[in-house]
Design brief:
Order of helices and strands: EHEHEEEEEEHHH
Shape: elongated
Bound molecules: zinc ion
Number of helices: 5
Low-confidence stretches: none
Distance between the termini: 50 Å
Number of domains: 2
Amino acid sequence: MKMSVDKALRFEGVPQEFEISVPAPVSDFAEDDISFAGDVVLHGSMTGIGENVALDGVLTATLLSPCARCLEEAKYDMKVPFEELFVRQPDPDHPDAYLYEGKEVDVTELTVANIAMNLPMQFLCKEDCAGLCPMCGQNLNLGTCKCDPALERSAFSALKALLDVKDDKEV
Ligand SMILES: [Zn+2]
Ligand SMILES: [Zn+2]
């Protein structure tokens, strides 16, 4: 997604406000089982520094992924502050800077990088999600099951549950 930095270059040193909607980078996070509700929005200010352009802003996105405990869809509202620099020539003083040419910068890469660096440790549908019964698979948020909690902890019953599932599949 390209964004014009013409104004920032013309009015060097004067921060220019920007807001841009970037299509959700769905394929970059498909392996992590993460999808998005809507676009990713970047807003903040851009400042021309000589030939370079500094972006200072906040990234907001809504991520969706199965809850780590119950597998129902869990939503994560991400809000990440970022500071990035775009340069015309590779600059050893700024090894993390992005390259650009002309009067536009491409914000796709920084969008993906900032999301990837700020993913939650795990997605939860709610803080106190009760998860699934390890024996029968009942979603314990929706009600309890009849399984004996003492048996749940035995390795034998876990194995038996696995075999039961396997049998079901073979029928
Ligand atoms: Zn859950
Ligand atoms: Zn159960």
